[in-house]
Structures are given as C-alpha cells and as structure tokens.
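Support request, please re-run this one:
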Amino acid sequence: MADTLFVTGRLAEPALRDMLAELEIDHQVAVMNISVAALMTTRWIAKRLAAPEGIDNIVIPGLCEGDVDVLQQATGLPVRKGPADVRALPEWYGREAIAAELGPRDVKVFAEINQVPALTREQVIEQAEAYRASGADVIDLGLSLDRSWLQEGPATIAALRERGLSLSIDTLDPEHIRMADAAGVDYVLSLTPETIELAEELRAIPVLITEDPDDLEGLGRLAAHMERLGRPYLLDSILAPINSGFAASLARYVEVRRRHPDSEILMGIGNLTELTEADCTGVTALLIGFCQEVGVGAVLTTEVVGWARGAVRETVLAAEVMHLAQRQARPPKHIDPGLVTSRDETMRAPTEEELREMQAQVSDPNWRLFADADWLYAFNGEQFVRETNMYRVFDQLGVEDPSHAFYLGKELMKATIARGLRKSYRQEGPLDWGLLSFPEPRREDPE
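Re-run finished. Output below.
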C-alpha cells in the first residue's frame, strides 16, 4: 500500500512521529536539514526533497510559504499543507475529510455598498469586485435619502452588469426603483404596501416589507398580490437591533416561515452586525445558523463599521458551515476553524519536559522560542530560559547584533500576545486569526 510522506524539520520530528503513531495511515517521514520546519518554503523543499519509493502523496507543514504546485511539479505527486501545529494532525485529518464536502450552501448573500451616490463609478466597481471575491452572490446598491442617483445610476449599473455581477437596488423611492429596473438590476429592496403596484411593471424580483414589521397580515397581503401576478418575490419581516425588539423580530421570522412555508425569505443581518459593538464573526455565525434552521434563504450584510470588516466572507463561510452541519445533523463544530479569530480552540504547546528534551538535541547558539499559558521559553545549546515577562527573557539572551535583537523582540512580543490570548505560538509562524489571518513578512528564504 502506498504511503503518505510527511516533511518536517529536526526539532519537530519527535512530536510528528508521536502524532503519526496515533493515526491509522501508512506513512514515512522526511526530516529536512533545518531546525524549524516553518522556515521552509515549497520552493526550498522542492530543491532538496527526494521522495522515496512507495509514496503517493506528500504533506508539508501548514506554515510553509509558497504554492504547493511548485513541489507537485518537482515530485510528480499530490502535495497538501497540513495543520500549522503538528499536534493538530489527528484533528486535521478529521476536518480535512469534512472540508471536502464544504462548499454548497442554502443562504444567498447580498452584500451592500452603502451610500452609492456619494461614490465614483470606479469606487463602486472596486467595492463590488471585492465583495464578489469574498463570495457575495448579489451586490446591493444602497442609495441615499437626500441624494439622487438617477443620472449616474444607469451607466454604473451597466458597467457592473458588463462584469457579470448580479445586482439589487436598495431604495424605497419609486423613481429610483424604475430607473434601476430599466438598467437591469435583478432585485429590488424593497416594495411596500404603498409601492406594491410597481410590481406589475418590474422585471426585477422584489423584496416585500411592511411599514410596521409586526404587521404580518399586511405582509401576507403583499405575498398574495405577487402570487396573483405569478411573480417571484422575497419576504422580509425586518431583523431589529438589540434593545429595539431583537428577540421579537426573530420570532417574526419563525412565524413568517410557518405562514408562508414555500416563500423565499430575506433577513438584513447588518442590523445586528453593524449595530452591536462586538466582533461580527460570532454574531454572523449565530444568525446564519438561525437562518439555516428556519429556512431564510437570503441575507443582506455590509462592511461599514470597523468590527464588521470581512463580514461578507464570514457570512459565506458561515452559510457553508451551517449547511453542512444541518445535512450531517451535527453541531457546527470541527467543520472549519475560519470563524474562530481572537481565541484558539486549544493552546497547543510542548511541555517543559519536551522542550528540555529538544534542547538536548541542540548544540548551536540560535535561540528557539516557545510559549504556553504560563511561561515564555527560550533555549539554545547552552542556556534554557523560562520567564513570564518578555523583557526578562530578552535580558538573558545576551544579544548584541541589532538585526538579531529586532528579530527576537518581534518574536517575543508575538509570543506574549499568544500567551495573553491563549493562542498557539510558533516561532517564525503567524498567529492564527481564522479568516482574518495574514502572512507574516519574512526577510528571505532559508538556504
């Protein structure tokens, strides 16, 4: 039977072999001539790795920079990046199997560009493309109450349509609704009892709302009107912000679904993500979970306030996660870690005993840094330092070279942040911020 080849560095080899012993897979281990595995890049590995006979795929450390295609071309074998921490291998294998099914979703994401009339056409296009790259299904053009878009609108809508974008217009003004519909938008947000007669002349699919969100009888009359016309529509009973009827508004959606089991429903989740001073990741996940259970098939979100930046991408991932969780009849846990940002599920760190065993294998003067929930550690071939304060650690390292001092200071600060937030720290590797993660700048590839 063919084996999986796991590539690692010298320091991580013992931990890797221990983890692999728990997995029922055929494997081999390639230990590269480098201490810290995270310093490797795919290009660096490709120049040095000779895959032994009997290998059918390769797994490299998750923190290795570079495209796996480089290594695949060099070896002729499939290559995957594993977890950032070798201790997460068993969990990674389980999540990898689940992730293969991740992708389909039931919730369509409308991403609103706010105050479109105040933006140039180029700015609107740029933001629309960014939302599409984040996974948005529909770009919602939010208009202003005090600024006309009748002149600029048709050309901007045409430019967006030329790029293959699905569009909605977000206004209650009949003139702007007619303009946008004629220009080719796909949805109108929204029609009310005062404007429902427009439905007969519109090509776009309308979202239906009532002036009083509690007026579910009125919402039903709007739906019945669209049914008589034989036209598609979406119902929105309006999600209220916290302390403005939030709990009751959730109950309304449940009731709307009961009364209209076959109707499409939209929820404006921005009323919560934008108006709740909390990282929107968890708020979004909870709301999308609600939508998945109730059968709300479309949500409207936006990214105006700072804590909601990235909300579109988070909404798309949440919709994929909740779809899969529902299909598998399981809680939305251990499917994808992208929505866990500020705190790690587990702070993975070697024990002090393991670190001292590592030190016994080291003879050079280079400092290795680690952190757990209690301590910061530094060791080389001659010295082992354990402190709670990064300055006390640094004072014992005896570093004189400015560039080396800068490097160690940067790493110790990162380790301190990780310890404070109970996040896993890996020297030379970025902290894991879920979907908000970004690559750490690196001076050069290892040689």
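The radius of gyration is 27 Å. The longest strand covers residues 3-8.
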